[in-house]
Structures are given as structure tokens and as C-alpha cells.
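Quick illustration, no need to memorize.
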Amino acid sequence: RQQPTPPPLGSTRRNAATMRVLTTSFHFTSLTLLASAFVDPHSFTRRTMVLSGGYNADVSRDKFFNRETSSKGDFSGPVTKKAKILSLSDPNDKTNSALYNGDLPDGARLLAIGTCLEDFDVDALHAEEPNVILVSHLGARQALIQLLDAFPTVDWVHSRSAGIDFITSEGLAAKEDVILTNAKGIFSSTLAEYTMMACSYFAKDLPRLMRQKQSKDWNKYNVLELRGATMGVIGYGDIGRAAAKLAKAYGMRVLALRRNPKKSTFDPYCDEVYGMEGLNKLMSESDYILVAAPLTDETRGMISADALSHAKNDAVLINVGRGPTIDELALIESLKTGGLKGCAMDVTTIEPLPKDSPLWELENVLLSPHNMDQTATFMQESTDFFINENLPRYIRGLELFNRVDKAAGY
């Protein structure tokens, strides 16, 4: 019987190598198919970005609240400690009625309400050992420190506002054992809507429309598109990101400036992210400049004459953060001399804006009295967040939403 001829040695090696490749490919494909059956691709992408420090990482890790994306907490776990609350607030503030008169979570109790230390019976309250202070009174800076000194048992202070510049102080920063939280994520969406309205106000020349309507003048004119324009966001926190989200829906290019650019590395709503040293670069590249930064020692006057000098002469500046972040005299000069096309201001350095301020008279300025987040329920929603989200976390020993760096001011 004739024996089969063995294959050449080289051919055997090639066949073995081919089989190894095919086997490896099969295992990889199988694992991929298996993973895809059990892993939501959107969740996988988000978690991958979180692990690398990418966009929305803090929200994904349950560090910050966002009224659009955060789901209601599941607080079925046991209560591990009581919350004994002092409210540094106006007793007649109806938006706090849920706190004053409503049902608090089991284990939480409101002890007293007042706007200054004298409103609280310190001797009687010592026996209660209060451990939580809610702040919703704008004149609370000194009173808060006095209460913290009077009641060393307090370990958590919550601000009903997102901005905390009305309570920050060296004394508060020195309270290392006190956690400070705020209402970040409550007011962002309506300020984002205002931002886009302000962009359209200048792009479509609404003042001209109103003048022509008043004079019954049917006169056509060219308008600008927001699509393709660049929005620069100074202070890319929750408000800035909410505005960027809408800007992207309009087809705009978005630049972001923040203290820690790595937090927005994979953010789908911004095209470029700069550190604080990139301010002038952002000013020079933006058609619409949104200032949404908190007021701190670092940000006070950051939009200076020098920064404004780098802006395009057809750029529009929009401020929804805090008035003192902008050098107002330099801004007025730029608006008068054509350094800027226009400005939309929901906040000013002095509020109410003095009657003799040139901003009232400038036609290229859109003014609003710090009310573009003032919906009928906005403060009530903030109080509800304290009661229904953070308070249940506190009494169960869970991590609180919206922790603030007391020294940095945000």
C-alpha cells in the first residue's frame, strides 16, 4: 500500500500558525459577543471615561447632583444617626415651608430657625447637640461662624444656594471637621436657556426688531446663525456644562475653561478644554463668551481689561455667574469703544444696579435683575433637594451630594 507523502516542514509550521491565529480570533470574538450580551455599551463607555477621569465623572460617582440626569435616591437602608437641624433662615420664607412645616425623614428634626445668633436659645439648644445647619439667608456670613463656634457638635452645613460667596470666610475654611454642601445642579437648566436667548438676542438683532415694530417699519435685514459660531465657557461647572449642551444642539463649537481641565477630557459637549492660563486664548477664539464662574479670590476681576482686549470686536459677553468676576469699568469702556459687540448681564458688581450706571444707557447691553434662574419654584426645589436627597444620605452615613471646598469657595 502506498504511504501518503508528508507535507513539507514549512507548510506544517504555517498551518499551525494559522490555527493559532484562528483560535485566538475565535476566543476574542466569543468574549466580545459574550460581553456585549451583558454590558450596556453606553454604561461601559461612561464607566471607561470615569475611570480615566473623563467627563461627568463626579456625577457618575454620585458626588454631585444634577436635576436633569440624577435619579432619585434609594434610601431603604437603616438610619444610623439623627439629624438635629438649625435653620439660618428667614422664619417667614415660604419656600422653606417643607422644612418648617412638612414631614422630615425619620431621624431628622428641626430645632430652631433664625437669622442671627440672638434668635437662637444657645443654652437650651446645647442639650440637643445640633449637628446640621441649613443656610438660606444672604446675610449669614457672621452668624454662621457664630453658630459653629457656639455649637461644636455641628458637622454639616448646607447652603440652599449654589454660590457660597455669601458665607465663605477664613473662619469657615478653618472648620476642618465641618462638611459644606450646596445646591449645585438645581439652577443650571434655566440659566442655560437664558444663555441661548442672549446669543439669539444679538445674532438676530432683537433690539432692531423691536424698534421696527414700534415704528411699523417693514425693513428686511441680514441676521447671523448660531450654527458654526464658537461659545467659550469660563467656569465649566454645572451651569456652564448645561449651556454647552444647548449650544451643541444649536451646532456651535464649544470651548471650556476650568481649574481642572482633565475633568472634561471626554466631555461630548466641548471641543477644547483649557486651564486657567488659557483665558486669553479662549477670549480670542470665541464669538460668544459665557462667564459662569463662582466668585472667589482667584476669579474676582478675572475678566480684566487685558482679557477683554483679546476678545473679538464682534464678540458678545454673557455673565450668569457673579458680577465682580468682571472688571465692570473695563467692560463699559469696551462696549462704548467697539471692543465688544454687546453684553448680556444677569449679574452686576453692585446689586441692585445703581441708577447712574452707564450700563442702563448702553444700547448694546441686555440687562436682567439677577432673576434668570428665578422660576416660581426654584428655591422650593432647592429646599426639597436638601430634605429629600442630602438629609436621607446624612442620617444613613452615606456620602453627601455637592461637597464644596470651603477654602477654594466652590
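The radius of gyration is 28 Å.
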